[in-house]
Amino acid sequence: MRFIIALVLSLALVVAFAKPLKKYPIPFYLGAVALVGLYFWGVSSGMRGEAWSVFQQIIHRCALAFLLFSVVMFVGVLNEKSRLRAHLMPIRRQLSIIACILAVGHIAFYTNSYLPHLVNVFSGRIGLSFGLAAFIALLMIALFVTSFLAVKHRMKAAAWKAAQRLAYPFYLLTYVHLALLLMPSALSGSQVATVSIIVYSLVAGAYVVLRTCKALADHVANAAPIESEAELELVVAQ
């Protein structure tokens, strides 16, 4: 259920609200902040109910944020002449910022869960999980900050591009992190956790395949002119 709702919200942002998101992103950022604020309020006040349970799962399981991050990443592997790419590219930065804001709820929830175990945080599975989560959070902060145009304009082009390349390890490690979080529940028989792992794996796997194919295609395209020049020189020499 939470994945379906997260998927519907993601599609609404990239289809129905693409133009206003590009033109007026601030209200959408504030909306994301409001959702995270509502999540914090509900958790602290002990909110109950089916609707709240679904909303809570969407935020603290990072379902919506992961899907938005997935859209951002998949834009980069689409064909340059693709109409879908032309539609999504203008809002790629905005979607990334919204996803980062929504991920704060997830980070806060699990940070609070780790706090009682700080004594053992650097040992065993807890230490590994905490270390991975902390590293992912640092990558997200770097991507979040450099997604704003004001920051981009103050950075050298090479430095900004280098910072944005952190999106690759960030996205893949986020998938690993979510899979590890869901694995205990899946192994204990939770159908929701099992389905979530399958869906996340399919999405991340599809991205890896498409990213690899695009990298190979770009390599062939870049090598072609060099080969043509070499053939031309050979013909001239003969």
Topology:
Blueprint: H1 2-16, H2 18-23, H3 25-45, H4 50-60, H5 63-75, H6 83-88, H7 92-114, H8 124-146, H9 149-154, H10 157-164, H11 167-187, H12 191-237
Helix pairs in contact: 1-4, 1-5, 3-4, 3-7, 5-7, 5-11, 7-8, 8-11, 11-12
Labels describing this entry:
Four Helix Bundle (Hemerythrin (Met), subunit A), 238 residues, mainly alpha, 0% strand, 12 helices
Can you characterise this structure?
By secondary structure, the protein is mainly alpha-helical. It has a single domain (2-237), classed as Four Helix Bundle (Hemerythrin (Met), subunit A) (Up-down Bundle). The protein has 12 helices and no strands. It has helices at 2-16, 18-23, 25-45, 50-60, 63-75, 83-88, 92-114, 124-146, 149-154, 157-164, 167-187, 191-237. It is globular, with a radius of gyration of 21 Å. The chain crosses the membrane at residues 58-79, 91-110, 130-151, 166-186, 192-210.
The tally of beta strands, per DSSP, is 0
β-sheet strand percentage: under 5%
The biggest beta sheet reads: none
- The rough form would be described as globular
Detail the poorly predicted runs: 232-238
CATH arch. level architecture: Up-down Bundle
Helix content: over 70%
Number of helices: 12
What is the terminal-to-terminal distance? Answer: 69 Å
Radius of gyration: 21 Å
Q: What's the mean pLDDT score? A: 83
Subcellular location: Membrane
Membrane topology: Multi-pass membrane protein
Domain Ferric oxidoreductase: 64-174
Main location: membrane
